[in-house]
Amino acid sequence: MTDKVLVVEDDIDIANLIRVNLVELGIEIEHEIDGQLALKKALDKHYSVLLLDIMLPGMSGLDICRQVREKKPEQAIIMLTAKNSETDRVLGLELGADDYMTKPFSVRELQARVRSQLRKVHFLQQATQEQGLSPEKAINIGNLRIDQQTHQVKLAEQLLDLTATEFELLFHLASHPNQVFSRCQLLESVWGYHHSGYEHTVNSHINRLRAKIELDATAPRIVQTVWGVGYKFNPQGVAL
Amino acid sequence: MTDKVLVVEDDIDIANLIRVNLVELGIEIEHEIDGQLALKKALDKHYSVLLLDIMLPGMSGLDICRQVREKKPEQAIIMLTAKNSETDRVLGLELGADDYMTKPFSVRELQARVRSQLRKVHFLQQATQEQGLSPEKAINIGNLRIDQQTHQVKLAEQLLDLTATEFELLFHLASHPNQVFSRCQLLESVWGYHHSGYEHTVNSHINRLRAKIELDATAPRIVQTVWGVGYKFNPQGVAL
DNA sequence: TTTTGTTTTAAACGTTTTTTCACATTGAGT
DNA sequence: ACTCAATGTGAAAAAACGTTTAAAACAAAA
Q1: What is the pLDDT of residue B25?
Q2: 3-state secondary structure of A158
Q3: Which domains does chain A have, with CATH numbers?
Q4: How would you list the strands of the sheet with A49-53, edge to edge?
Q5: What is the pLDDT of residue B23?
Q6: In this predicted model, what pLDDT tens digit does every residue of B75-98 receive, in sequence order?
Q7: How far apart are the C-alpha atoms of A177 and A174, rounded to whole Å?
Q8: What secondary structure, in 3-state letters, does chain B show?
Q9: Which of helix, strand or coil describes residue A19?
Q10: Chain C bases near protein CB atoms (7 A cut-off)
Q11: H helices of chain A, where?
Q12: Would the pTM of this model clear 0.85, i.e. be above it?
């Protein structure tokens, strides 16, 4: 069964960002701007996960969260807010949210958190229905294995010691073999949208990543440069 | 989405005034005093809007405006000046500023103008995103395949090694089979408007492109010359 | 706080691409 | 065939880009 997620968010840009990146995971999206309408939908229909912005026209995300929680105690809810204030966070969790993301969030964070909720939901369903399966998300290409669960990377049975950023970078590139990403795109998907940092930073990380995964860092076969464009993951570089 | 605005202004008081009143709108601010550094930032990083004072140490705001506009045609720019002279205003707009404010300005005016630019930016982003939902990412004509995702070009299953410019040139021509483009038009669409260079450059690139894709570069069948007019892509040249 | 490790920024350096230019060639009109 | 202007060619200069290294900023842990 394809999971369905209700996104309640008034910023069209963020909503689209979420849509694109969840659809990529094979998740169906419904988008609602108005708080009141969203509440109605959330109560009437079935969604695997609710993604609620806190600041909304019509009704606060916190209100929606509380009312949904009353009627549907098992509903998975992730709160979403621009504020970074601790009070909101605490309040959100107290009102029954299962998780919380502060904007700006990276695409990977978004996917990870939603996936985490889906796993929980599926586990519950499995427990009650005594059936079901939850696919583990790990990348296996050639002799490269990237496991996001354990955050481990193995190349030819050799465990690599990557930092968090290096891992995300490699994971994102490897998730889209052969696709070229500009430094700007990488900043958006790995660091988070509208991340303000120099594109130069990407070079630095690519450099260190290569030092760890390439046999010969001066002639990269796995993470390759596309001149004047960006970087790409070359699956042939890890072919068995 | 939190928008970020770069304020380039050497008067600390004004800079603070701007900061306070834009933060109030939920906008993130970066402040830069020196013109040269500001230009670097503006080119390397991403900002929703640039607020440029004209009189600056290091480099004039007009120069910054011009140079940013060349590299980032879509960047929203608001010029800022103490002078009330019409010439500056005209000059600023000619150099590609989107809006103009003369000091002293009211807080309401500041907020209104910035918000107006943000609206435009968001609208554009939304428009391009929607357009990008069903993107013609790859071109397939005869035995020629051009893939934007991977930035790869295959001719008769043979992978061609094109530079970024060569790729764009071929892509643009192939996107409009049989349509003749003048060198000037090509400069505009491939290099970008406001490009200051000789039309002769196009010849050079066509030349190198032909050397790579044509069987016989002296008798081009794919990228053909239309005497006295320009160049065109001939689909018959790659027919199966 | 100190220490350690990571991330970001900056600068120096080497490479590739782009541009430019001089000259050769081609095509249209006479 | 001749001439003129448009186009093609190839090589050198200039610019753009990418890598590397080191240092600074930052954050986490001891």
Answers
A1: 82
A2: strand
A3: 4-127 (3.40.50.2300), 135-237 (1.10.10.10)
A4: A28-32, A4-8, A49-53, A76-81, A99-102
A5: 82
A6: 889 988 776 555 555 555 666 788
A7: 5
A8: CCCEEEEECCCHHHHHHHHHHHHCCCCEEEEECCHHHHHHHHHHCCCCEEEEECCCCCCCHHHHHHHHHHHCCCCEEEEEECCCCHHHHHHHHHCCCCEEEECCCCHHHHHHHHHHHHHHHHHHHHHHHHHCCCCCCEEEECCEEEECCCCEEEECCEEECCCHHHHHHHHHHHHCCCCCEEHHHHHHHHHCCCCCCCCHHHHHHHHHHHHHHCCCCCCCCCEEEECCCEEEECHHHHCC
A9: helix
A10: 5-11, 16-22, 26-28
A11: 12-23, 35-44, 61-71, 86-94, 107-129, 164-175, 183-186, 200-213
A12: no
Q: Which of A14, A195, A229 sits opposite B151 (nearest CB)?
A: A229
Query: Which pLDDT belongs to residue B208?
Result: 96
pLDDT, residue A102, reads 72
Any A CB within 8 A of B45 CB: yes
What residues in chain A have per-residue pLDDT under 70?
1, 82-96, 123-136, 193-194
**Percentage of the residues of chain B whose pLDDT score is greater than 70:** 87
| C10 nearest neighbour residue (CA to C1') | A200
* A179–B contact, CB cutoff 8 A: yes
Q: How far is the CA of B149 from the C1' of D24 (A)?
A: 37
Most confident of A122-131, B3-12, B101-110, B151-160: B151-160
* pLDDT of amino acid A230: 96
B116 neighbors B7 (Cβ within 8 angstroms): no
What DSSP element (H or E) covers A101? strand A99-102
Residue percentage of chain B with pLDDT more than 90:
35
Of B81, B48, B53, B82, nearest to B65 by C-alpha is: B53
- Contact across the interface for A82 and B26, Cβ inside 8 Å: yes
Residues of B in contact with A12 (CB under 8 A): 122, 126
pLDDT of residue A127: 47
For tokens 């107290």, name the residue. A94
- CB spacing of B2 vs A229 below 8 angstroms: no
- Counting beta carbons within 10 angstroms of the beta carbon of residue B147, is it exposed (0 to 12), middle (13 to 18) or buried (19 or more)? middle
DSSP H or E segment with residue A6: strand A4-8
Q: The tokens of B24 are what?
A: 């109030």
